[in-house]
Amino acid sequence: xxxxxxxxxxxxxxxxxxxxxxxxxxxxxxxxxHVELVxxxxxxxxxxxxxxxTLAAGGEVTGxxxxxxxxxxxxxxNTTHAIRTSTIDERKKLLIEEPxxxxxFPGGFGTLEExxxxxxxxxxxxxxxxPIGIFNMGGFYDPLVEQLQIFVDQGFATDIMxxxxxxxxxxxxxxxxxxxxxxxxxxxxxx
Length: 191
Description:
Number of helices: 6
Distance between the termini: 19 Å
Order of helices and strands: EHEHEEHEHEHEH
Strand content: 15-25%
Helix content: 40-55%
Low-confidence stretches: none
CATH class: Alpha Beta
Structural class: alpha/beta
Oligomer: single chain
Number of domains: 1
CATH architecture: 3-Layer(aba) Sandwich
CATH topology: Rossmann fold
Number of strands: 7
Strand order of the largest sheet: 4-3-2-1-5-6-7
Mean pLDDT: 92
């Protein structure tokens, strides 16, 4: 079962109002289903929307924020747990090491970098394999999912595609992550 979910998302709202609306519903879902949110620590954009809704629903939030790095991106001060880092690399390392699974919300280059690093670290054995949920809202991540499969098909990447789950329904996606986490835990316990 996923207890801690690291969410990779943007510090901007994106071009469509629906991103913010769905982010709010997703945060509320996490909080009301007792899934702890682990995220980049900001009140800005989608990060702020998801974390605020999670807290409003009574959930726990761990914010991991690099001190003094951003002028426009302010840290959330009312998280359940606050971890301050001195670099963005420390922040990413903790975002990858802390959770039971990952959830990728539509975002920008930072979001892409975070998921790329998590996948890379898993395939080279720096961290255990963890379930990844790609929230494919409106087909946002179709090209990325296709490219990931090309990496595997062309022999440039270890096949972790069975642990990469794609859906445009965040509730279904969290359930897929739960099932995969349970299977990974059962396999580890059997060893």
